[in-house]
Amino acid sequence: MTAVATRAARPGESSATGGWHAISPLVTALLAAAGAFLVYRVFIRTGLGQTIDSAAMRGGDIHHPQVSEVLSRTLNATQFVILGIVCVIAAVVGILRRRVDLSIGVAVLVVAANVAAQQLKAHLDRPDLDGTAMSNSFPSGHTAAAASVAFVLVMAFPRALRGAMGLLGAAYVAVVAVATVWAEWHRPSDTIAALLIVLACGSLIMWVIRLRRSAGPRASITPARVATLPLALVGAICTAACVFGLAAVAMSERVMPDLVSGRFAFLTGVVAIMAATAGTFYFWVRLTAGDPLPEQGGKVR
């Protein structure tokens, strides 16, 4: 795992970036919350947004047996009992590392993210603008649960493992999110909003941790590129594909009927989910890599 270990900053880097280091989690939290609100306004409160979102969900008629089996197994494995066990393991790891603040943060992150997702789903209004008369499913509880658990594993494990945990967590969450759309439990916007909500909650917790340790010594840490570069590349490629796909689906719905198929709409939703997953994990890996820690025995933990 040395390939994904983080690098300590050179002398002078800490003072130059100290102000941004202190406020970057708060800025990330605000941007993530704004992003979730924007997704709600566009894909829940507008007719075209609802139509595109529903078309992506209905187009997920996959008959490939191996793909269906992977999606079904992953979705069935996302049970709250299993996720709770993983959270307990992450909290124990934090305690063993003598990081009580991380153990508390793990619990708060999971509770806050999942309570927020469930409360929003229960109280947000979804007007019937696309004629489907479907009840509100925004945001996705399954995606929020999976993402919160992946986030706490990245947060609680030592820095040398955080990059690898981030890549594995992003892959797992992407499959869970796509599976909920494939099963027609959720629309793509539900899963994207859930990811942003978890990022907002996690960033706020990381901000509090940094404030708590701001008076002590700090080593500025940057994540290894082997962890962040794949996330950045996947995010950029999928974002470009998503923009093209959304434009094509919107044109098909409003200007040129049958321009694209339902399968194309579903694949557009898939790349949108992958872009959101890569983006949220990219920022989370960077935030946790800069987690302020005291030095013990000349080594940064």
From TrEMBL:
Pfam families: PAP2 (PF01569)
Domain Phosphatidic acid phosphatase type 2/haloperoxidase, residue spans: 103-206
Keyword set includes Transmembrane: yes
SUPFAM superfamilies for this protein: Acid phosphatase/Vanadium-dependent haloperoxidase
Alphabetically ordered keywords of this record: Membrane, Transmembrane, Transmembrane helix
Transmembrane residue ranges: 20-40, 77-95, 102-120, 140-157, 164-185, 191-209, 229-252, 264-285
Source taxon at top rank: Bacteria
InterPro entries: PAP2/HPO, PAP2/HPO_sf
Full protein name: Phosphatidic acid phosphatase
Organism of this sequence: Actinoplanes cyaneus
Organism lineage: Bacteria, Bacillati, Actinomycetota, Actinomycetes, Micromonosporales
